Amino acid sequence: MTITATRRSSRSWFTAVGAATTLAVMLAGCSSPDADSAQAAADETATDVRTTGNQYGTKAPYVPFEEMEDYAPIPDGYEPVLVEHLGRHGSRLLSSKKYDDLLYQLWEIAEASDGLTDLGEQLGEDLETIIAVHDEVGYGTLSGLGATEEQGIGLRAYQRMQDLFDGAADSQGSITFTSSGQDRATKSGDNFFIGLESENGSIEQIVAPRIDDPDLLYFHKSDPEYLEYKDNDEDLSDVLDQIESGPEVEEVARDIVSQLFTEEFISRIDDGEFDLVDNGKGKKHLTSVVDTASYLYELYVIAPLMSEEADVDFDAYITEEDAEVLAYISDANDFYEKGPGFEGRDVTYRMSNVLLDSFLDAIAGISTGETTQVADFRFAHAEEVIPFATLLQLPGSTKQAAEGDPYTYDNNPWRGAQVAPMAANIQWDAFENSDGDVIVRMLYNEAETAFGFDCTPIADGSYFYEADELESCLAPLRG
């Protein structure tokens, strides 16, 4: 695996990646006999930029991938009539008491036995800060940054389709609010609507009471074939074991741990002296140098997400270069467990066709009159957004891993920070003219994005598609 590291701020990296994503979807949006070549070029362009600054994986904070002023104009004669939206929850705290607790247990043992370096001494204070925040705010909850992200997405959704929402507020239309039922998804929706309503308070009156629908928005916990795959598939366990046990991982882990603990204490870890168990669910163990570095990485990626709750910075403990190696491990897990996965198999994403059915049915209902709402806003998780992006073959999610050729950054464009950062979203905006013709555009993390599967836009290079065309070209993906 070759990883190119470039030091730059998170904001500048996201700006650069956003520009690459825009170029990628422009290439993918061209309708021509060379559509496959255009998609390949899009993925290659994305890969060139995404291999730098990717150290946060799917824990990357959210920024829109394209500015609204860069969108193509809506075709003449068409007015907005419907928004179909799926969003991942915004930035959150640690999901449960495990990584912080296990590292603190190890730190206390090292402190008591003079096994800490000067930098290791500093780690204890940062661990105590993180634990205190979680004890006060709660594990798995939406962070202040997450609330800010969702409010911004909601505000921009209103600004893009202002005439639709203002008209609905005046005519007492309706907007649906559906959640997975998990607290961070529900609070993400609450904050999204704060943004949506911020420039027109009347919208609040037309938002229907929230519905929790885990079958639609938490299907990764109930689909039996998927659960069997994740828990018992030998190919999955073998490839992840191969990736996680690579020599580069061991090298990076030692580089990280040696800055925190003395050689004598690291030898005790290597000798198998410790088998620490978390005081949360009691399922996670710390037994090795790789465990120690991996768990520290989990705090490295969560620290920016809790910036409004605590001033903690883990950059001193993990270099960007080392973080990118560990990000690859995280991305590989998500790729095989939630994304494109193994060539010729669809178990990781087939279950998301329930979302496609919901989107397409609502679009079809515009013409028949069955769709009476002006917008459907759904709030879920990476485990739903990643499969849906894969089902639709959105940029970066177009290539599976061939047997005997595991996923790497060199051979595949899939990157967690691009496919499903915190607050990732997929939105279809529908427009209708006076003749009853309906067209649709797709926004992926707020960037105009072409539909794949030989779907033909209304004009070469356009991001707008006739509703009947989408129903036809996406029909094979339906449930």
Automatic annotation (TrEMBL):
It comes from the Bacteria. Pfam families: His_Phos_2. The keyword Hydrolase applies. It catalyses: 1D-myo-inositol hexakisphosphate + H2O = 1D-myo-inositol 1,2,4,5,6-pentakisphosphate + phosphate; (2R)-2,3-bisphosphoglycerate + H2O = (2R)-2-phosphoglycerate + phosphate; 1D-myo-inositol 1,2,5,6-tetrakisphosphate + H2O = 1D-myo-inositol 1,2,6-trisphosphate + phosphate; 1D-myo-inositol 1,2,4,5,6-pentakisphosphate + H2O = 1D-myo-inositol 1,2,5,6-tetrakisphosphate + phosphate. Coiled coil: none annotated. PROSITE patterns: PROKAR_LIPOPROTEIN, TAT. Residues 1-19 form the signal peptide. Residues 34-53 are annotated as: Disordered. Its EC number is 3.1.3.62, 3.1.3.80. It is an enzyme of class 3 (hydrolase). The keyword Hydrolase applies. Residues 34-44 have a biased composition (Low complexity). Keywords: Hydrolase, Membrane, Signal. It is found in: Membrane. Belongs to the histidine acid phosphatase family. MINPP1 subfamily. This is Multiple inositol polyphosphate phosphatase 1. It comes from Paramicrobacterium chengjingii.
